[in-house]
Amino acid sequence: MTAVFLGIPTAPRGVGHLRGDQSFPDAAREALRDGQLRANLGHATSTIRGKRAAVAAELPDWAELRAAAKAIKTATMARLDEHLLVLERQVTARGGTVHWARDANEANAIVTRLVQATGADEVVKVKSMATQEIGLNEALEAAGIAAHETDLAELIVQLGEDKPSHILVPAIHKNRAEIREIFLRTMPGVDPTLTDEPRRLAMAARAHLRERFLRARVAISGANFAVAETGTLAVVESEGNGRMCLTLPQTLITVMGIEKVVPTWRDLEVFLQLLPRSSTGERMNPYTSMWAGVIPGDGPQEFHLVLLDNGRTATLADEIGREALHCIRCSACLNVCPVYERTGGHAYGSVYPGPIGAVLSPQLTGVEDNASLPYASSLCGACYDVCPVAIDIPSILVHLRAEHVEAQQHTTPEAVAFRALSKAMSSPRLWHLAQKAAGLGRFLSRGKATLPAALPPPASKWTRTRDLPTPPAKTFTSQWAEEHRS
């Protein structure tokens, strides 16, 4: 029996896709200059929002389902170690092998070793956030193993040498014309008369992938859920590519974050009602695949489950932040977020973009490695309203911002300014002097309602992203004194 240890360090630097090369504000400024990107995102997210709202409204007990999902996740996280050990026993009893990976480096090494043991030099993949998180494709490539993405959107991203920008629709930032150009440029043997009609594009991708499905001896998948009591893994998808990967190869390797476990089949029932409605706006996914271990003569004859930590137990140790581990990767929060809709997913620098990424990525890496992400939000609360498991993302964002401020040890210009303000507000004499000094701002405004954005540093960092009202001609205290003098 394998022991489960809590308090494992955060995700290591230099591997995987949890940290960006730029801070969010810098990356967002570049994204905002791309009008085509904003048009693509606006159209796609509004369409998905509408579909989700319609199917969620069909269920009279939608609120009760959300509450049930939240309760299940909270209870599961409280006893996560026990449920994982039950899962390991059940998978092993059904002929599978369970591997434990502390971080991205260990997970990549385990999967690479397992593929090499089969003698294969290529694998087919079901869309998997966990393998993107750890940079598995790059690790396999370094070992001479080609990884073929089979999800249509992931294929588009891979062929275009791009990065995913959405949890559910990784190529959401691309339109049909751009996808056609990618296929014509990178897909061997594609019909040169290919149009940007969705059906024609899908058929081209199908022909490209079919030969890879039929020749592949190894498949790599993620998992939407794992049922501890039976050792059952579940993948839900809309195209059928997952079903091909999960049934045709001889060896199946599943990489799963440890938070994906649910205790029982009855728990799974709740999530299978919430996930499709919140993600694709469907009543159920076209393909829901479940498997447990191996069955002689039917499907893969070798099954490996890699249970990934990579900062998850460190997140679990945070009493407030651990709620981010409840996420079922539906992407509903991305589709309603005004910040994501305008900047896209690449600005977040992580495979987990949008509101959930703004709270999950900093915790997996350590807040200071992703210090700008908790500020990538207007705190409007729309993400919390649509979350199918009722994650209070705004509260976690504020919590992580506070952690970042504390970590700075009050040395930032903003911290110095607030300390000075606190001292002034605690002394009536200093406060009156400060009010008189603030009145000078009226000269800078030149009659306008706000001060200019181009104030000198460090004030420019504040006014660049916020409107600073022009100080009034009279302070409240002076007006009060005048009115009550008589």
UniProtKB/TrEMBL annotation:
NCBIfam families: LutB/LldF family L-lactate oxidation iron-sulfur protein. Gene3D superfamilies: Alpha-helical ferredoxin (1.10.1060.10), NagB/RpiA/CoA transferase-like (3.40.50.10420). The keyword Iron-sulfur applies. Residues 87-293 form the LUD domain. Transmembrane segments: none annotated. Keywords: 4Fe-4S, Electron transport, Iron, Iron-sulfur, Metal-binding, Repeat, Transport. Residues 454-486 are annotated as: Disordered. InterPro entries: 4Fe4S_Fe-S-bd (IPR017896), 4Fe4S_Fe_S_CS (IPR017900), FTHF_cligase-like_sf (IPR024185), Helical_ferredxn (IPR009051), LUD_dom (IPR003741), LutB/LldF (IPR004452), LutB_C (IPR024569), NagB/RpiA_transferase-like (IPR037171). Residues 408-483 form the Lactate utilization protein B C-terminal domain. Pfam families: Fer4_8 (PF13183), LUD_dom (PF02589), LutB_C (PF11870). Residues 324-391 form the 4Fe-4S ferredoxin-type domain. This is LutB/LldF family L-lactate oxidation iron-sulfur protein.
